[in-house]
Amino acid sequence: MEITETEKIRDISEIKKRVEELKREKDAVILAHYYVDGEVKKMADYTGDSFYLAQTAHKIKNRIIVMAGVKFMGESVKILNPDKKVLMAEGSADCPMAHMTTEEEIMKVKEEYDDLAVVSYVNSTAEIKALSDACITSSNALMVISALKEKNILVIPDKNLGNYIREKIKDKNIITLDGCCPVHAEYRKDSLLKLKEEYPDAMVLSHPECRKEILELSDYTGSTSGIIKTAGESENQEFIIFTESGITDELEDLKKDERNKLKKFIFPEGFICADMKRITPETLIETLENEINEVVMQVDLRKKASKPLERMLVLGE
Ligand code: 13P
Ligand code: SF4
Questions:
Q1: Which helix (H) or strand (E) holds 198?
Q2: Which of these, 82, 205, 270, 314, is most buried using a 10 Å CB contact count?
Q3: Cα gap 79→301, rounded to integer Å
Q4: What is the enclosing helix (H) or strand (E) of 116?
Q5: Comparing C-alpha atoms, which of 232, 242, 131, 262 is closest to residue 188?
Q6: Cβ(123)–Cβ(129) under 8 Å?
């Protein structure tokens, strides 16, 4: 039997009510990344970009932390909160890019340079973080890398983020390997030019995980929160956005302000991270109810991975 719209809404409001009860009963808090489903974000206590989530996780006092995001985000929360129970709102949500660099590749570059810092994007596994000197996110990469004393910087796994950093920091030798985000790297110059033809006055805002050919044609490049902030503060009325379309919720929220109410946000077709979208109100409630999908990590790995993450929190503040 087909479920009607009203039944769906009733179900969602029931889920929300139960999630609130469970949070109180279990002393739990929910963190969500901007890319996850809008209904899940409404149930979250904190929503933001990767850096904000790591900073927030560092300060949380609750017994249980539920991460509505991909696996590396849950791992980062656990690394920063070893005594808490960290649960993934969906156990299979993983970032493919996080697995794109191997230990062997890192060791090979280390052999080539004496004066080298290994800098891993937070979108990496705990094992790769453990081999790193510092972590970065798209919102603090320039600040963290500029503060490092080493001349040679291996940026992994995202070569597009690495290319972006190379353009911005001229006095470092930025080395990259072959990883990229399959969602952001899918888009080429032609899709941007087509949208520009349709909206010639639009400002182009892009995430640094996009290819160089997109960044070169962008008016602003930055993290998800940087894109939202720029769209809110700009005088422009139209924006072509090159990042995952989940941030539409936050962009539409900007319209509550009189100055933004006519703004138009245009995304290229199909800009969706399938892994982030695995997290639904149903998977979230199942996680909380049954305390499943716990992030477990060996103590030694956790300790090694915590150093570069903590360093990022200090240098990227
Ligand atoms: P932000 O750090 O900008 O939120 O990006 C995370 C991410 O996974 C982008 O694809
Ligand atoms: Fe990973 Fe790309 Fe999805 Fe971000 S958008 S979580 S980098 S696959």
A1: helix 189-198
A2: 205
A3: 9
A4: strand 116-121
A5: 242
A6: no
Is ligand 1 within 6 A of the CB of residue 140?
Answer: no
Instruction: Kindly list the distances between the CA atom of residue 124 and the CA atoms of 63, 95, 141, in Å, as whole numbers in the listed order.
Output: 26, 8, 14
Distance 48 CA to ligand 1 centre (A): 9
Q: Which of 19, 3, 7 is nearest to 286 (CA)?
A: 19
pLDDT confidence of residue 17:
94
pLDDT tens digits for range 111-143: 999 999 999 999 999 999 999 999 999 999 999
Among candidate residues 281, 122, 289, the one with its CA nearest the CA of residue 209: 122
3-state SS class at 98: helix
Could you give the CA distance from residue 156 to residue 139 in angstroms, rounded to a whole number? Answer: 16
195 lines ligand 2 (CB under 6 A): no
Nearest to 66 by CA among 16, 40, 31: 31
Encode pLDDT of 197-211 as tens digits: 999 999 999 999 999
